[in-house]
Design goal:
101 residues; mainly alpha
């Protein structure tokens, strides 16, 4: 009698265990990984776009500063306007900083 109960409980435990393990675990894991990867890829793409926009803005700013420097330098060379030593130094410093960025 005792062996019969142990056998019946063991069979019941095995049946419940088999029912729990019947779903495909890899499938649920893969779908979660796919969703996480898609979200991660979207974030990476967004960061890349932001970085590219920032680089574009910085390049435009460097071009603008170089143009301003060229115009100011032409005025000084033509004699129409004389720049103070401080102004010349400030322009050179601005261009150097912009190029470093």
């Amino acid at each position: 009698m005792h062996n019969g109960k142990v056998t019946m409980v063991a069979t019941l435990v095995l049946a419940l265990f088999a029912a729990q393990c019947s779903r495909d675990v890899r499938e649920s894991r893969d779908s979660n990984v796919g969703e996480e990867r898609a979200a991660s890829d979207g974030r990476v793409a967004e960061l890349q776009r932001e970085r590219n926009d920032e680089i574009t803005r910085l390049s435009e700013r460097v071009t603008e500063i170089e143009r301003e420097y060229g115009e100011a330098n032409q005025k000084v060379e033509s004699g129409n306007r004389t720049a103070t030593a401080g102004l010349r130094e400030e322009l050179k410093e601005d261009v150097a900083i912009s190029r470093k960025r």
